[in-house]
Amino acid sequence: MRGAAARVSDATDNWVDTRAPLWSRPYLRLSRLDRPIGSWLLLLPCWWSAALAAGIAHDLKRLPLILVLFLIGAFAMRGAGCTWNDITDRDLDAQVERTRSRPIPAGQVSVPQAAAFLVLQALVGLAVLLQFNRFAIATGIASLVIVAVYPFMKRITYWPQIVLGLAFSWGALMGFAVIFGRIDATALVLYAGSIAWVIGYDTIYAHQDTEDDALIGIKSTALLFGARTRPALMVFYGLAVALIGVALTLAGAGWMAWIGLAAFAVHLVSQIERLEIGDPKLCLRLFKSNRNAGLLLLAGLLSDAISRATG
Predict the structure, then answer these.
(1) Beta-carbon neighbour count of residue 202 at 10 Å?
(2) pTM over 0.70
(3) Which of 47, 216, 277, 282 maximizes the CB count within 10 A of its CB?
(4) Is the pLDDT of residue 39 over 50?
């Protein structure tokens, strides 16, 4: 059994390792606060959706509060999802070099302790959700079905990234649910575009573990595509840009939103050009860079929303 001070192999020299109290470190690692990129990637479709919906409504009054609530909710529910994933995957994680140092397989936290922490994080997420209208509450709760089944998908299909996309893109629906109390065609197309984006970036992420995954029977699009990953990314990233463009058209978005989408597209193209699937460190850097890609699109959507509300 390793002590709480022991570090996770693929997340070192972060604030959790250096500043957090020793007793809290295993729990912060369970929630991935030592590497918050996943929380950002969950949050960004929420923010896209809220900004786009606010632009359609020509009303920014509620947008700042909605963005803050989405921020809190995304970090809480990302933490809960990761804790659930670590509970269900604890035996598999123990067999993979990159993940065997996670808190449960490393013996830093017991399964009952992790389950209790999961409930605590879920309650924070629920508290955020209850600030919204009934339709938005029901929409948010519906996502839990996808979150619950995701960890098992990599055992049965080479396409677990689709299920991850369904879960991580759910926020693309939430902005419309919160602001309008409904989900319309614009939100659904934005959701589809986000799913394609997630499939692309998580394929890059999965290339870090292809050797171990093949040995223990875990499936992924990284293993499915193999040497064909670059053309596959062209398809999925191309779909993401095209579908988000359709959403912008349906929303009547202005030129600033389109500049944001163009910057997003250029960033995705640069990822494809730089990708070397045999270089795990590069794959991780490219995966993490998707936060910047998403922020570029967000900047365009927010600028457009402000322009439409004040114009």
Answers:
(1) 24
(2) yes
(3) 47
(4) yes
